[in-house]
Amino acid sequence: MFICVYAVRPLWMRIVPVLKPPSIRFLIKVCNLILSKDSNTLHQYYTKPIFEATRKNAYEFVTEVVYYIPEATWSVNEDGHNIIQYAVLNRSDKVYNLLYQMSDVRRNIYKTIKDSSGNNLLHLAATLAPTNKLNLISGAALQVQRELQWFKEVKGFVCPLNIIQKNAFEETPQMVFTREHKDLLIEGEKWMKATAESYTITAALITTIMFAAAITVPGGNDQTSGIPIFTSEAAFTTFAISDAISLFTSVTSLLMFLSILTTRFAEEDFLYKLPTKLLIGLVTLFISTSAMIVAFGATLFLVFGQRNKSILAPIAALTCLPITSFVTLQFPLVADLIIATYGRSMFGKKSNEPFY
After folding, report:
1. Is 254 exposed, middle or buried (0-12, 13-18, 19+ CB in 10 A)?
2. 165-169: long-range contacts at Cβ-Cβ below 8 A with a sequence spacing of 24 or more?
3. Are residues 316 and 204 both part of a single domain?
4. Do 121 and 216 have their domain in common?
């Protein structure tokens, strides 16, 4: 079978294996060796390896094996799952995306296929992901979000009837998702509340400090007119603008974190609503903290730097220190929120090369 298929391939496809990494070239040799065996016993050589590759999201391995042994697509494990069903169970997105490289006829089969327990593909997406896959994501709330993204993706792929279809245990996919993720949702709520509470204290302190600073301006006011003494100074303008920015953004941040604490924490809220609120709160808190440090630096210069301009350099250097520290400590969480919520989707067609 292999010789016939190989003979009709274009010349450029025959020389591709030479250009591939050594591991892939070795895999191709193994596939050729398997094809030389009795056709009735081929499955025993590739079934376990292809499912292990699916579990580890090694889509290159799966692609090459299916390329040379097409029937490997329909291999089933001891639980009666094929590689696409197993990819959904193990949250192997790169293997799952191979669906989009299939022909419409073959892809439609997976829209209605069920396992021995009557679970369609959406039922499998509703089950809780393996612990090792969840641990790759920081924070229980973001773990819930990733699970919801998988559920939403598969929900858009399967037939509409499958969304309300019941399995052998009389459960719809939504019922399975709620049952399987009950504990994770509780942990996600605790994580979100604990995070919001800690930042709420910081935002409230900044709001209090900057409101007091706006009333008691540096240098005081003229006793006759009530106008601040340093009004004509450029540093005072910097102080005023920074103080206003810090005050308004800290209030915004405080309101965002308070809204998180009072939300209902429904399943669907973890997809966009809660991550967006937390992201806005963190960004505005960073702006308010930075503006507060700038306002403090401008105050120091007004009070102590009028006759000694050389003090400006150390003030600027010290101002950058807390801002840099804040970015270093909080950037990973902000980056995770941005990528997980608004980043490029991990689902969809990744290559134009047909798969089976």
Report:
1. buried
2. 165/120, 165/122, 166/118, 167/114, 167/117, 167/118, 167/119, 167/120, 167/123, 168/117, 168/118, 168/119, 169/117, 169/118
3. yes
4. no
CA distances from 60 to 47, 97, 111, 201, 345 (A): 16, 12, 24, 49, 20
CA geometry: angle at 51 spanning 113 and 45, to 5°?
115
- Return the amino acid letter for 34: I
Residue 144 lies in a domain: yes
Are the beta carbons of 121 and 158 closer than 8 angstroms? yes
**By C-alpha distance, which of 161, 73, 84, 66 is closest to 121?**
84
Residue of higher predicted confidence among 101 and 5: 101
Interval 323-331 mean pLDDT: 82
Q: How far is CA 133 from CA 34, 91, 128, 142, in A?
A: 32, 7, 10, 12
Domain membership of residue 351 (yes or no) is no
Please provide residue 228's backbone torsions phi and psi, each rounded to the nearest 5 degrees. -55, 140
Task: Give the predicted TM-score (pTM) of the model.
Answer: 0.84
DSSP class per residue in 145-173: HHHHHHHHHHHHHS-HHHHS---TTS--H
Last residue of some domain: 107, 138, 170?
A: 107
Q: Which domain holds residue 316?
A: 191-342
Over residues 41-56, the mean pLDDT reads 84
Helix (H, G, I), strand (E, B) or coil at 221: strand
Please tell me the distance from the alpha carbon of residue 130 to that of residue 143, in angstroms, as a whole number. 11
Helix, strand, or coil (residue 266):
coil
Q: Phi and psi at residue 221, in whole multiples of 5°? A: -115, 155
- The answer to whether position 231 is within a domain reads yes
**Residues 214-243: pLDDT tens digits?**
888 766 666 666 676 666 777 788 888 999
Alpha carbon separation from 110 to 49, 92, 107, 113, 314 (Å, rounded): 22, 16, 6, 5, 65
